[in-house]
Design a protein that fits this description.
Number of strands: 14
Number of helices: 12
Oligomer: single chain
Strand content: 15-25%
Mean pLDDT: 87
Shape: globular
Largest sheet: 6 strands, antiparallel
Strand order of the largest sheet: 1-5-6-4-3-2
């Protein structure tokens, strides 16, 4: 593992296992920390709030949760998963693969969560324990500036969340697991739609949006349940002015039985068996950090609207309205689903 990832991983595990508060570091330690490039002091944002979600709502065993990170801290650190996203975030996994840690590089994303979404997110999760919004189990931040953060070398925010791929690395059929990061595909993507996509590489275009060429083969009741949960989740996101979120779909061979990390989990988290008996499905809703009222979003909307005066390519997924994006997102759920009832 590169030195940067190793040091970041150590900072993360230290913060999870620590009871340190933002103002508890001595002045000299804070001065020394300011000149650090790769090291940073992290503390938990709203520690009691996230602990309440973990233990009271999702029913995680707190000792097992801490053990996941204690083992990493003792045995050499978290596993670097590399760059799994289009935003440049770095990802880590606990040694038992139960939890992921994602860096948040862009200030307009993490300030949206901290300032606009955190309260509604927590209340929504308490009111809807089977919500399919990804379960954020801790949120870490650096309480002071460092040279590494100021120069963009080191992220200042890290989100700890459930790992929907839990069980994959221990499965002999791990290569048979499939993942899809799904968004409505009929939006304007400059990389794909300007000059017929000839201005960027195929690798760049492949990372824009996934296509699920098969169908979720489920019963009418299961589809109705999925739509109902996602309608509630996306209503929350629309109310916070959020767009460009995605449905993360995992499917793996149905003969594998992996218990969920939390006691409270619906079939869509545990692994819902397809009606043809071939697959199990897991789904969560991810990447709900792009807010329409932030400066970057307003600037991009202005640029795309100006471009469309002549090009008429339509909105991007990050420049459309929250209500319009929500409508297309829910329509996509129906498009990738096929109702298969039991034979009489």
């Amino acid at each position: 593992m590169p030195r940067r990832q190793h040091l970041l991983g150590r900072c993360i595990t230290r913060a999870i296992l620590s009871v340190e508060r933002a103002s508890s570091a001595p002045l000299l330690a804070r001065i020394i920390s300011f000149f650090s490039i790769l090291q940073l002091r992290l503390v938990k944002l709203r520690e009691a709030v996230f602990a309440g979600l973990r233990e009271e709502v999702w029913q995680y065993d707190d000792e097992e949760y801490k053990t996941s990170f204690a083992v990493a801290h003792r045995d050499g650190g978290l596993k670097s998963v590399g760059d799994m996203g289009y935003s440049g975030s770095v990802f880590f996994a606990t040694p038992d693969d139960k939890f992921l840690v994602k860096s948040l590089q862009r200030s307009f994303e993490y300030t949206h969560f901290e300032n606009d979404m955190l309260g509604p997110f927590v209340q929504h999760m308490r009111d809807n324990p089977n919500s399919l919004l990804v379960r954020i189990t801790d949120f870490l931040y650096s309480p002071q500036a460092t040279m590494g953060v100021l120069f963009g070398i080191t992220p200042s925010r890290f989100m700890v969340m459930e790992n929907v791929l839990h069980g994959k690395d221990k499965d002999a059929k791990g290569d048979a697991w499939e993942t899809y990061d799904l968004k409505p595909i009929d939006y304007f993507y400059p990389e794909r739609d300007v000059a017929e996509g000839k201005l960027v590489s195929e690798a760049t275009k492949d990372r824009l949006v996934d296509r699920f060429e098969d169908k979720l083969r489920i019963t009418r009741t299961q589809l109705a349940d999925l739509k109902s949960v996602l309608e509630s989740d996306t209503a929350l996101l629309a109310s916070t002015n959020t767009v460009d979120y995605s449905l993360f779909l995992v499917r793996y061979p149905a003969d594998l039985n992996v218990d969920p990390v939390a006691e409270r989990a619906s079939g869509w988290r545990k692994g819902l068996t397809s009606r043809d008996g071939r697959w199990k499905y897991r789904v969560v809703l991810l990447d709900f950090f792009w807010a329409k009222h932030k400066f970057q979003a307003r600037l991009k909307t202005t640029l795309v609207d100006t471009f469309n005066i002549f090009a008429r390519k339509g909105p991007m997924s990050v420049t459309t309205t929250p209500e319009e994006y929500r409508g297309r997102f829910l329509e996509m759920i129906g498009d990738i689903s096929e109702v298969v009832e039991d034979e009489e």
